[in-house]
Design a protein that fits this description.
The protein is α+β, with helices and mostly antiparallel strands. The protein is built from ten helices and 20 strands. The relative contact order is 0.12.
């Protein structure tokens, strides 16, 4: 007998069954990939979508992909017909992508039998960061002024038709990278992950029936929407506004303001970026997909329980982002750093705005930068070109009940580091220093986490690009906590050691070193050593602000 509603036990079981599909896709992608960027750093995401292209579940991979992968799937569905055995590939930031190295592949799930042939039952998709996709510098994270300089851009195109690779698409893709063998391996791994996802979805239907799986997908989306509405009702009425800044765009323009406000409208939540800077010349612009991901991430983090990451989460949310601004740029803006740096600052300002409304739930600012390093050149010892890309973590902001964690990626990324042994075995590079940057976390009742101190030496002549932020502005503390230390970047060569800008392209000779010291997180609460005695004495009545009392919402720029 068919069910027309699922009880809470069944819903939790289906949540885990569907999540397991995306997690297994990720395991296949990691273990069949070729580059350390996939196998070691795990810079990828996998998700399952319903027949209408609505996200059902997103594995716990990369947060910046949460709100953007669904837009890529939507773009693929709208642009092309996908029959059985087809796969569509795209990376266009102006069609739901993030930045060009993130390549998304989408495949439909068809069921056997007459009822399953007319349209897909579901879709599976994965997105992987390819360490080089062409462009002006190895690693495809250049200091560009327009997207044409950033690498190969693909709108939705068929990569596979009826189970066979489209050779023209594959050849065009590989012709636009410095390391085609590596790109081949990673792309094949993405296709393997899609096949695993398709098989698992078909297995679920065979065991539980198409009707019940469809019902489960729909009810999981409805459940997420209810949980977000419940969260919205905890936000006091009013307009909660904040402003934060990016240091610069790499071309002398800065600081760059990002302004955001939250406003509760009954059971709806409006997020407005009015007052944010216009798009910039450098590569820090974001498209609406990345901005949506940042909002998605903040809401998911604050709901207060483990919530299925799916389309329902954004049903009660309205985003207003001025077209032509740095958070919703116009073509052909450069966007390589928007995905990795501006996304972090969007999260910072969103949390900062809500700190007035939910003072006991909001942490201090984390390091606020992914600190992107891209290196590449020709490895004469191995007789091949190489391209290496990595993000370097920092300190997490302290919270109301805990100190910030040290030396890890925060907020919009969830990648691991490349182990020293892997990096040195795979590339003509040597890691000469790798340590926690002690004392870089902000002081407070709860101290912010410390950043990272990492130095890499070139063994061969190479080009390097550094794309980072929070080298001028610091990750702010909260509730009286102090800011974390800003980052610091230097190079060492025969000429000596010198400080370098946070956004720069360099040429390194063998023996030259690049060193990054990443920011620490902000502290939470006034440290006891700095707290006046009249507040510290036993039985003292806390201030209205410490009790979480209402304040007049106003700009805290």
């Amino acid at each position: 007998m068919r069910k027309h509603a699922l009880d809470s036990v069944d819903l939790e079981l289906y949540r885990n069954r569907l999540s397991a599909v995306a997690e297994e896709m990720g395991a296949v992608l990691q273990h069949t990939g070729l580059s350390p960027n996939i196998t070691a750093r795990r810079d990828f995401s996998c998700a399952v979508f319903d027949a209408d292209g609505g996200m059902v579940t997103h594995a716990a991979h990369i947060p910046v992909h949460l709100g953007s992968t669904p837009l890529s799937v939507r773009a693929a569905i709208d642009a092309l017909d996908m029959g059985p055995g087809d796969v569509v590939m795209l990376n266009d930031p102006f069609a739901g992508g993030t930045h060009l190295p993130d390549v998304t592949v989408v495949a439909p799930v068809y069921l056997s039998g007459p009822s399953g042939r007319s349209r897909p039952f579901a879709y599976v998709a994965d997105r992987a960061h390819h360490a080089d996709i062409g462009g002006a510098s190895p690693g495809s994270m250049p200091l560009a002024t327009e997207i044409y300089q950033e690498g190969f851009r693909a709108p939705p195109v068929h990569l596979v038709r009826r189970g066979a690779i489209v050779p023209e698409t594959r050849s065009l893709f590989l012709a636009n990278t410095r390391v085609p063998d590596e790109r081949t391996g990673d792309l094949e791994a993405q296709l393997s992950a899609l096949r695993a996802g398709q098989k698992r979805m078909i297995d679920l239907v065979a065991r539980h029936g198409a009707f019940e799986i469809t019902l489960a997908m729909r009810e999981l989306q409805a459940y997420s929407a209810r949980m977000v509405r419940r969260f919205i009702r905890t936000i006091p009425r009013g307009k909660w506004l904040a402003t934060d800044f990016l240091d610069d765009d790499g071309f002398g323009h800065g600081p760059i303001p990002i302004r955001a406000s939250w406003r509760r409208l009954n059971d709806l939540l409006e997020v407005d970026f009015a007052g944010t800077a216009a798009q910039v010349r450098g590569p820090l612009n974001t498209n609406l997909a990345v901005t949506t991901s940042a909002v998605f991430y903040v809401i998911a983090s604050l709901v207060g329980r483990e919530i299925p990451a799916n389309r329902g989460m954004m049903d009660p949310v309205r985003i207003r982002a001025p077209l032509g601004s740095i958070v919703n740029c116009r073509f052909p803006a450069a966007v390589a750093g928007g995905n990795v740096e501006t996304s972090q600052r969007i999260v910072d300002v969103l949390l900062r705005a809500l700190a007035r409304a939910l003072p006991e739930r909001i942490p201090a600012a984390s390091c606020g930068s992914m600190t992107n390093i891209a290196l590449g050149g020709y490895d004469s010892a191995r007789g091949r070109h190489f391209a290496y890309y990595e993000t370097v973590g920092g300190g997490a902001g302290a919270g109301p009940r805990r100190e910030g964690a040290s030396a890890l990626q925060t907020h919009m990324t969830n990648t691991l580091n490349t182990p020293i042994e892997v990096l040195e075995a795979y590339y003509p590079l040597r890691v000469t220093r790798y340590a926690i940057r002690r004392g870089s976390g902000g002081i407070g009742l709860h101290r912010g986490g410390d950043g990272i101190d990492r130095e890499i030496e070139a063994v061969a002549k190479l080009e390097a690009t550094l794309l980072a932020d929070r080298r001028i502005g610091s990750p702010t503390g909260i509730a009286g906590g102090e800011s974390g230390a800003p980052g610091l970047d230097t190079t060492t060569s025969r000429r000596g050691s010198e400080r370098i800008p946070s956004k720069v392209r360099l040429e390194l000779e063998p023996g030259d070193r690049i060193r990054v010291r990443t920011p620490g997180g902000g502290g939470w609460g006034r440290s006891r050593a700095a707290t006046p005695k009249k507040v510290r004495r036993r039985g003292a009545r806390p201030s209205r602000a410490r009790r979480g009392g209402a304040r007049s919402p106003k700009d805290d720029a």
